[in-house]
Amino acid sequence: MTRGDVLAVTLAAACVGGLYARFWQPAVAADTVEVRVAGTAVGRYPLQVDRTLTIEGRRGPLLLTIEAGRVRFSMSPCRNQICVHSGWLSHSGDAAACLPSRVSITLSGHGSEALDAVSF
Amino acid sequence: MSAVMLTADRDDRIIAGFAALAIVIHVLEAGFPSPIPGVKPGLANVVTLIVLLRHGLRAALWVALLRVIVGSLLVGSFMTPGFWLSASGAAGSLTVLAAASVWNRVLPSWHLSALGLSVLSALAHMSLQFVTAYTVFVPHSGLLRLLPPLMTAALAFGVATGIAAGAVLQRLAEPDAAAELPHSDG
Which of A53, A87, B129, B168 has the fewest CB atoms below 10 angstroms from its CB? Predict the structure, then answer.
């Protein structure tokens, strides 16, 4: 192992460590939810205000419930109900979708999209 | 009508032999199950490194290029997303290896051996592959969370293949092993 190797491996390890610091930060509480239908945003709603929203999807209406800083699909006309089973979402970067209806929701907080995660 | 005669010189034979070896490793590796998509030991890179350090950059470029194209034809992934990922990764790692060759010439006191070259090329391979995956195939920011573990795997496998390449180079440097070479790469 030469001096150059030590330098290369140290730099490489530092870069990898930096990536963890950059992309693996603990989840941040979300403050807004963005609703998209067929890829286009149809609205942003604050999570501080409790309410039930009706979203018009491709297969009929879906219900979104916002409560205590969290949001969930509470009713959907689709067969598999994957969106409903995604349950309550509260972290920035969380997302859920009803693909048959082409409706998706994405949570964000402090504008930190880089902390995104996928929830199935 | 005059026939064009193409004769293979020593370099051509070396490139063909090592490319064949790299292709075999590439195909064998493609059959191995992988715990995470995109994580492979990259053992075929051992061959690229050996060629680079023994026969220079030009031969190494050829071996890598032939490996990616012929390997993908044999595996059946030619022109598929997997092929483009593999090709972009190879382009990244070769760019870094070319830069490292210049580095070794300019700064001989900070000379990089197989280990350092392997680690740098593994990281470059993974980075470019990731950039391609992110910009072309899955432009979703959720993918970024995969980057740290993928790069960790690249670092670990880079060290492992670097040690392997170093060991092989040492064996090849021994006179009796060198005498066997024409058989083993023909």
Answer: A87
Interchain proximity B109–A8, CB inside 8 Å: no
Distance, in angstroms, between A47 CA and closest chain B CA? 22
**Amino acid identity at A96:** A
pLDDT in tens, A70-90: 999 999 998 889 999 999 998
Query: Which of A32, A28, A49 has the alpha carbon at shortest distance from A91?
Result: A28
Residue A64 has pLDDT above 50, yes or no: yes
Q: What is the distance between the alpha carbons of residues A108 and A28, in angstroms, rounded to a whole number?
A: 9
A7 touches B: beta carbon within 8 Å: yes
Share of chain B above pLDDT 70, in %: 92
Q: Nearest CA to B30 among B156, B161, B22, B163?
A: B22
β-pair partners for A73:
A64
Which of B117, B141, B148 lies at the smallest CB-CB distance from A20?
B148
Does B113 touch chain A if contact means CB atoms closer than 8 Å? yes
* A49 at interface of B, judged by CB pairs closer than 8 A: no
Task: For residue B179, give Cα distances in angstroms to A45, B15, B49, B157, B183.
Answer: 74, 18, 20, 30, 9
Q: Identify the bridge partners of residue A91 per DSSP, sorted by sequence position.
A: A29
* Residue in A63, A34, A41 with CA at minimum distance from that of residue A51: A63
Alpha helices in chain B (DSSP H): 10-30, 44-55, 57-75, 81-106, 114-132, 147-173, 175-185
